[in-house]
Amino acid sequence: EAVLCLPVFKFLLKVVSAAVQAQHSKDKDPSAEAANTHWKDLNWPGLAVDLAHHLQVSDDVIRRHYVGELYSHGADLLGEEAIFQVQDKEVLASQLLVLTGQRLAHALFHTQTKEGMELLARLPPTLCTWLKAMNPQDLQNTGVPIAATAKLVHKVMELLPEKHGQYSLALHLIDAVEAMATL
């Protein structure tokens, strides 16, 4: 069964990714959209979770992936709702922390405003190094408002236990995102 799990997981994760992309992609072709309406109306992420459960593989991995995909596409309100279905919220918080870092890295390094560079100079060195290691190209939607990112980092703080190794990083991220919001 362990040999089968990897392909099953990959398939189910791809199903979830494709479903979220189909629902939230910015460049929707109206003719293709009309032809695919039936398939888009199906709850593919829910079906993937059900299939994982029936195949006796971790459905929580699928749920966490779904939440991450929603946030990556900028569907933060849906992501917030989907968080309630996740069991291992600590692992989810770590994953969302990376996504928050990717959003902030994009905002700081790709716009390169004078104010943004000044803010970067004031950030703790560990946070700067961590942000430079982020790959914003993994984000499906880079146009998410900084206010939504601030809300996300606060959600991460709610989910992370204070003794978690990434808790101090999340605290620094809160300061950085709030400073970005004032620029």
Automatic annotation (TrEMBL):
Which protein is depicted?
A: Rab3GAP regulatory subunit C-terminal domain-containing protein
Residues making up the signal peptide according to the UniProt record = 1-18
Tell me if Endoplasmic reticulum is a UniProt keyword of this record. Answer: no
Question: Where would I find the Rab3GAP regulatory subunit C-terminal domain in this sequence?
Answer: 10-161
- Ranges in coiled-coil conformation: none
This protein's species is Mus musculus
The gene it comes from is Rab3gap2
* Record-annotated membrane-spanning stretches: none
Q: Which UniProt keywords apply?
A: Signal
